[in-house]
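Pasting as-is:
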Amino acid sequence: MSEQGTGQAAAVTAATTDRGTIGYIHSIETMGLLDGPGIRTVIFLQGCPLRCAYCHNPDSQPLRSAAATEMTPAEVLALAERQRSYFGQEGGVTFSGGEPMLQGAFLYECLQLLREAGITTAVDTSGFGDPNWYRQVLPLVDTLLLDVKAFDPERFRDLIQGSFATWVNFADSLVENGFEGQVWIRHVMLPGWTDDEASMDRLVETVLPLGYLVDRIDVLPYHTMGIEKHAEMGRPYRLEGMPPMDETRAWELERYANRRFIERLAERREAGAASRVSAPRRKESEMNSIRENPYAADQDPTQSWLRDGIDLRKLPLVRHLSVADFETLTNELQMLRVRKGEVFFQSGDPADRLYIVAKGQFKIYRYTVDGREQILYIYNPGDFVGGLNLLTGHRYVYNGQALEDSLICTMSKDFFDRHCLDNPRILRQILDKSYDRIRWAEDLISRLSSANAGIKTAELILRFADRYGVQTPDGIRIELSLNREELGSYAGLSRETFTRKLGEFRELGYVDFSGNRVILVKDPDALMAYFEG
């Protein structure tokens, strides 16, 4: 099973019977909350080549044990299907151990079936499995729980009787072997060994090469529950007399490690001369005062520019119209009162109207291939959508839905062609808005292409802070009409994942909440370090 002193796993041939490939299971935990995102079914596989001094399941180390249960991948899938209703959007199945990567063939077939069934997967590994299966297994893993036992060869060998070089080789080859998920780093903190900031700095430097694959660092306080099992098996317990790790101190150092990790990522990026380009702020031309409008109050005593309590002169797109064209607009402009949740145009609708937000807020969105809603953009008073559609004649390819009770001005294509098409200032605004949309879309693509929930959440919060945030003594206040599910959609995450990451950021002191719809950004620099921009 192992080469003594190295912990390098030998190849394990999967047993095959009339039932198919067989895996050896130590135990199964349902409704697990600590082994990956959400609620999970945790399957502990038998067999481990390491001999960790603090192992609390030494009976899981032999591959074959009289107490082990044999299961096929199909039986694992059936178990997961029975538990699926508890998983929600984020949960799924976690394979732990022992060392699950040791049973490569069985693990691969399980992951294949679960992926085909749409069930998310996690694998808890120390990086000491069967290398022959890494290239098949790793592309199927959504979350890798990567254990970091120690940070140097000598301590690694003494603590777990394994080779640090083997762990490093495994970590360095993740991308090469096709892994595209997120990594949760796990470290068991031993009092007197790694319970200080210097040790956390070493942990950070050890995992820093993984870069943006790392979504979080978890510190697991050492406990003494393994002593009894070692005694039952007649084995000496090498950490006899070591007290349990203080959980409060472990949590403090976990916060320190997470913060230090993203700081080091930022430092490494800056050292490499990477440049950050933030999302553009709203164009200054859109925020100009009423003085640019051809009408002043004392020039228009009839107040024809006032519609439904909205001063049309303040709408950025139309303030550059000539006096005559503006008078025509006030007669032809249609006002839509749209209730919260109402869809007022849909994908496939003809591009015969341009929509300008006079009051309220709306979103445009479309559906992904798996039927989930993906928000593309949010519009606030003064924003407009449809300019390029009118220019090109292309139908709308997304839906428009009010986020709150709103008042929408609509301009017909006929009016646009007669009065706006030859106006360079209006065309410039349409191009400016299109550029703004393109940059925002690029940010969206960046978020969606990353599997790292921390990056997606941090970037979205900062983009909102830049666009909609108000500086207050308590932090940057972001108040939106979006609920958590919609925010998750915007970030390319499920509601559960987005809410979990927000909660983690709050615990780390990066953000705070005021009610359900207000986010206070307390530490924008910490969030900025999560992504490259």
